[in-house]
Design goal:
two-stranded parallel ribbon, 2 domains, two-stranded antiparallel ribbon, alpha+beta
């Protein structure tokens, strides 16, 4: 049963409190945090190190991960992912340029496809 969540906090202390609360509530519901699959990150802060624990086990700190299809980086935050997505959209629009400029396709059809 996949259960993915993201816990956000302003600082390390608040993150530890949030993770502790999540662990307590999960335990009450018959679930547990899988520490081998759980990662922490400090987005946009580079290589800043910190320790977050669950039941005495330190969680792995990662520099980059994908959440809901977007790449989040410790060094770049989400800027690199936004640039990547803009590039993909630009490429798609470029590939469709023949459709947009075609005289054989009605404007109404183009608007429907857009």
């Amino acid at each position: 049963m996949p259960n993915d969540i993201a816990v956000l906090a302003e600082n390390v202390t608040d993150l530890q409190v949030a993770v502790d609360r999540t662990s307590i509530v999960s335990t009450r519901m018959g679930m547990r945090i899988n520490t081998s699959k759980t990662e922490t990150q400090f987005p946009g802060k580079g290589d800043k190190r910190f320790d977050i624990q669950v039941n005495g086990q330190c969680l792995h700190q990662t520099g980059r991960f994908i959440y809901l299809g977007g790449t989040i980086s410790s060094k770049e935050g989400s800027e690199a992912d936004v640039s990547r997505r803009i590039g993909i959209a630009r490429g798609i629009f470029h590939a469709l340029s023949k459709v947009w400029t075609s005289k054989d396709i009605k404007k109404s059809t183009k608007f429907l496809r857009y």
